[in-house]
Structure to design on (109 residues):
C-alpha cells in the first residue's frame, strides 16, 4: 500500500492550496474552481506520498504522452489508494472534463 500524507505534508499542501485558490481568484477563475483545487490537491498528494509509478509517469519528457498517462493512472486508482478520496470527484467526470481540468491545472502544479 502506498504511504499516507504526513502531517507536515498535509500542512504544506493546505497552504499551497490556499495560495492556489487566491491565484485562481485573481485570474478570474470562478467556474469550476473547486474542481481544479481538488484535482491539484490530489495530483500534488500523489507526488508528496512518493508514489513511484506516478513519479515515473510525470517524468516522461513527451508532454502529450505524460498527460495521457497521468489521466489513465488517476482514472484507474482503486478505492483503497490513500489519495483516491481526493480524486474521486475528478474520476467521476466525463473524459472531456477530466482532460480540460488536467490541461488547465498542469501549469499551476
Amino acid at each position: 500500500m502506498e504511504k499516507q500524507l504526513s502531517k507536515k505534508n498535509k500542512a504544506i499542501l493546505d497552504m499551497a492550496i490556499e495560495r492556489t485558490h487566491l491565484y485562481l481568484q485573481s485570474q478570474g477563475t470562478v467556474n469550476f474552481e473547486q474542481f481544479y483545487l481538488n484535482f491539484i490537491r490530489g495530483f500534488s498528494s500523489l507526488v508528496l506520498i512518493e508514489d513511484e509509478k506516478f513519479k515515473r509517469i510525470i517524468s516522461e519528457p513527451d508532454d502529450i504522452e505524460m498527460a495521457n498517462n497521468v489521466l489513465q493512472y488517476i482514472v484507474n486508482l482503486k478505492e483503497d489508494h490513500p489519495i483516491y478520496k481526493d480524486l474521486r470527484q475528478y474520476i467521476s467526470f466525463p473524459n472531456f472534463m477530466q482532460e480540460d481540468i488536467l490541461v488547465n491545472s498542469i501549469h499551476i502544479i
